[in-house]
Amino acid sequence: LVTSMQRLGLRKPNKMPKVSEKIAEIIEAAETLNKNGYLYQIDNDWYFDYSKTVDKLPDLHLSNQVLSEIYNNRGGNTEIKGKRNPFDFIVWQHVEENEPEFDSALGKGRPGWHIECTAMLLDEFGGEIDVHGGGEDLKFPHHTSEMSQNIGLGNESVAKIWMHTGSVNFFGEKMSKSLGNLIYIDELIGKYPSAAIKIAILNTHYLSGFSWNEKLIEGSFSFYKKICEAISTQNNKGFSSSTSEKDKALQCLDCDLDTPAVLRIIADNVSRVLDKDSLKEIPSIKELCDLINI
Predict the structure, then answer these.
(1) Alpha helix locations (H) across 239-284?
(2) Distances (CA, A) of 24 to 116, 120, 262
(3) 39-71: per-residue pLDDT in tens?
(4) pTM given for the model
(5) 1, 160, 163, 171: most buried by Cβ count inside 10 Å?
(6) Number of H helices, E strands in the chain
(7) What is the DSSP letter of 210?
(8) Would you tell me the crossing angle of helices 23-35 and 144-152 to the nearest 10 degrees?
(9) How far is it, in rounded angstroms, from Cα 222 to Cα 81?
């Protein structure tokens, strides 16, 4: 992952915690939730009592749905006898054959998915973080469960800003590891420059989903070549020192990271350069591209 990011010209994250390295912290968080009265046991599994925090999550914050709507649209696991609420989720569970097992005050077992992320976030950042990202499909239940657990651990909130990305489809299906229909950066970068790959991604607003296909990347590669031609022309003949177009692009980024709008500004100015417009009145194409790291 880090190598692929570096090949795209992206900075390496300062921290990349792994669940396997945070088991003690995860166990401590699960035990604290139980001590604080948020867990209950069914056989050898421990569930979070969602009803104890739902009033502190108006409209479930992220999904903007009422419980009945979520139940109808996403469903709840009602097959487990003893659950107080279909939305109660596992925090600590018994293990199946060949699964890793750990000792805890809740008995031998392993953590649920949601508590892993909550515990790592708290351990690495100590509570509320500035920006929490993820796919739109994680709003509920995963991120909503993170919020509930954070409340149960005595914290106010998880993040100041939530940024959920739209799904990327491939031949009509969501691109995912489980389906095995992934396009890997290392494969693409052998055929296309990293800037062309980033253009293909940034040309859709992060909130919107899109479909990856050859036409998309070929179109981005074509645009990239025009950008290179425009930069070369400006290197030979100069450009305007005006910051108005750059300021306009920055305003687009300030407006919920509107990268497609920035690309339209770049495309407009690239066309002006290639059409031999008054070059001295056109801003630096390279500086505009640097704003979105292409």
Answers:
(1) 244-254, 259-274
(2) 11, 10, 45
(3) 999 999 999 998 898 787 754 455 555 555 555
(4) 0.84
(5) 163
(6) 11, 9
(7) E
(8) 70
(9) 58
